[in-house]
Amino acid sequence: MKATAPVSLRSLAGHRESLALTGTLLTLSQIGTQAAPTPPADEEAPVDDLAEVVVDAEEDTLYKPERLASPKFEQPLRDIPQTLSVVPKEVIREQNATTLRDVLRNTPGISLQAGEGGVPAGDNLSIRGFNSRTDLFVDGVRDFGGYTRDPFNLEQVEIAKGPASTNAGRGSTGGSVNLVSKTPHLDKSYELMLGGGTDDYHRATFDVNQPIEAIDGAAFRINGMYHHADVPGRNIATEERWGIAPSITFGLGSDTRATFSYFYMGSDGIPDYGLPWVASPNLAIPGFVDRIAPVSYDNFYGLVSRDYLKNETHLITGEIEHDFSESLRLRNLTRLGYTTTDMSVTAPRFVDEDPGTPGNQYGTTIRRTDWKTRDQIDTILANQTDLNIDFNTGSFEHKVVTGIEIARETSDNFGRTDYNPATAPDTNLYAPNPYDPYYAIIARDGSGTKTDATSVSAYLFDTVDLHEQWQFSGGLRWDYFDVDYLNKATSGAITALGRDDSMFSYRGAITWKPCENGSVYFGYGTSFNPSAEGLSLSNSATSSANVNTDPEESETFELGTKWEILDERLLLSAAVFRTDKTNARTQDPADPTDTIVLAGEQRVQGIELGVAGTVTDWWRITGGYSYLDSEVLESKNPAEVGKELSNTPEHSLSLWNVFTFPAGVDAGFGVNFVDSRFSNNTNARQAPSYWLFDAMVGYQVSENVSLQLNVYNLFDEDYIQSVGGGHSIPGQGRSAVLSTRFTF
Question: Which of 144, 296, 321, 351 sits between 20 and 30 A of 410, alpha carbons compared?
Answer without folding.
Answer: 321
